[in-house]
Amino acid sequence: MKKFILRLSVLIAVLIAALYITDTDFIIKAIRTVYLTGHTTAFLDDYTHAENKPIKTGKSKAWPLHKNYNKIAATEKLLELHKAQGTAAYLIIKNDSLLYEAYYDGYSEDSRSNSFSMAKSYVSGLLGKAIMEGAIKSLDQPVSDFFPQYKEGLGAKVTVGDLSTMSSGSSWDESYYSPFSITTRAYYGENLEDVILGLTTVRSPGASFKYASGDTQLLAMVIEKATGKKLYDYLSESFWIPLESENEALWQIDSEANSMVKAYCCIASNAKDFARFGKLYKDHGKWNGQQVLDSAFVAKSVRPRFKESPRYGYGWWLRKTEDKSFFMMEGHLGQCVVVEPNDNLIVVRLGNAKASFGNDPYNGDIRTYIEEAYKMLSHAPKTQP
Q1: Running DSSP on this structure, what letter comes out for residue 236?
Q2: DSSP class per residue in 67-118
C-alpha cells in the first residue's frame, strides 16, 4: 500500500510538473474550481473562487412596484422549468414597474451570481460610451491604432465594430467543456492579454458573424487603452452609477498582477440590477431624462449587422416573430435579460442550467421563459401601474 501511495504521489507530481512545463498549469485551477466543487463547467457562484474587482454604485433607486405586484401566479409549466433547470431568479418588469419576482434555492433579490456572457452587452455598451465621449473615433476605427500586433495582414482590417459584432475573423475557438481549449485558458489563466494577443486573424474581418468571446476580450482591451481606465471603473462611472444600481457588483479578473477583467463574462450581480441595462436600451439610451448612451448607437446595436446572421447585433441577441421584436443579453446556463420595447416588457432569468436546441439562444428554455411571462401578463388585472 505504501508503495502504491508513493508511486501515485510521484505520478501526480510528474503530471503537475508537465502542466507547468507545457504552460497548461491553468488546468490545475480549472480542476480545483470546477471538478473539485462538484461541477462540470463554470457555475453560477464561481466568482467566490476567483479574484474580483468592485463595480461601485452611487445613489441607488429601487424599481417601482406595479399595482399588481406579485398578484399573478407563475404558470405550472414555468414552475416545472424553474425546478428542472435550477432557476435562481425570475422577474417580469412591465411599464418600468416590477410586476413579478421570485427567487429559488437560497437566492434572494440581493444575491450575486455570474452574468456569464451577458457581460458582452455591457462591453459593447462601453464601446458606444467611449465613442460618445470621443475616446474612440467610430465603429470603423482600426484595432491596430491601439495594438500594433494588428498592423499586418488581415489583422490590419479589423475594426472595433468588428469586435462588437463578432466578425473579426480571429482564430478563437469557443469551447466550454474542454480543459485544453483557449476558452478554458482564458477563463482560468492569469494573463488574458497574452492569450488574446496570441490569436491570429484567419478569415476576412467584417464579412460574417462567428461567435467568439475573444472578440469581446480584445474590445475590452481596446477600450481600456482608449480611455486610460480599467474596465470595472469605466462600467461603474458609465452605467452602474448613472443607472442607480442598488448593489455593488464584482467583475472577475485574470490576476491581481494584471487586473484585466474577464470581459466576455463574469460580472457578479443580481437580477434587478442586470435589468437596468435592458431598460436603458429599451429607452434609447436615456435614464431619468439624461442621454447616458447615444441613441443612434443603441438603435444600431439592436439591429443585425449581417443579413445572413439576423440573430445578432452589436453585443445583443435579436429575435423577430410575427408581432414581436426582442433583443436580449444572454449567458451560459441560461442567464438572460429579454426586452420587448413595443410591449414595454423586460423578463429576467438567472439560474444553474438550461436546455437549448441549435445555435439560436431563443430556442429551448428562454423561449419558454418569454412565452410563460406573456401568459402571466394575460391573467393580470387590467390596471395601470
Answers
A1: I
A2: TTTT-SPPPHHHHHHHHHHTEEEEEEEETTEEEEEEE-TT--TT--EE-GGG
Distance CA 68, CA 349 (A): 20
Name the CA dihedral angle for 314, 320, 326, 328, rounded to a multiple of 10 degrees. -40
Domain extents for the chain?
Answer: 2-33, 46-378
CB burial of residue 69 (10 Å; 0-12, 13-18, 19+):
middle
Q: Give 149-167 pLDDT, tens digit per residue.
A: 999 999 999 999 999 999 9
Query: What residue type is 184 in one-letter code?
Result: T
Instruction: Enumerate residues 6+ apart whose C-beta is below 8 A from 67.
Output: 97, 383, 384, 385
For residues 341-361, average pLDDT: 86
Rounded Cα–Cα distance for residues 317 and 42 (Å): 21
Cα 311 to Cα 304: distance, rounded to the nearest angstrom? 7
Half-sphere exposure (Cβ direction) of 67: Cα atoms closer than 13 Å: 7
Q: Which residues pair with 250 in a beta bridge?
A: 54, 268
Query: What are 345's three cell numbers?
Result: 416588457
Residues 6+ apart with CB under 8 A from 369: 78, 81, 90, 336, 338, 347, 349
**Cell numbers at residue 349, please?**
432569468
CA angle in degrees (0–180, nearest 5) for 128-270-342: 55
Q: What homologous superfamily does CATH list for 46-378?
A: DD-peptidase/beta-lactamase superfamily (3.40.710.10)
Residue type, position 158, single letter: V
Distances (CA, A) of 202 to 153, 212, 283, 376: 10, 13, 38, 47
Using one digit for the tens of pLDDT, what is the confidence trace for 15-70?
Answer: 444 444 444 556 666 666 666 677 767 889 999 999 999 999 999 999 999 999 99
Are residues 314 and 146 in contact, defined by beta-carbon separation less than 8 angstroms? no
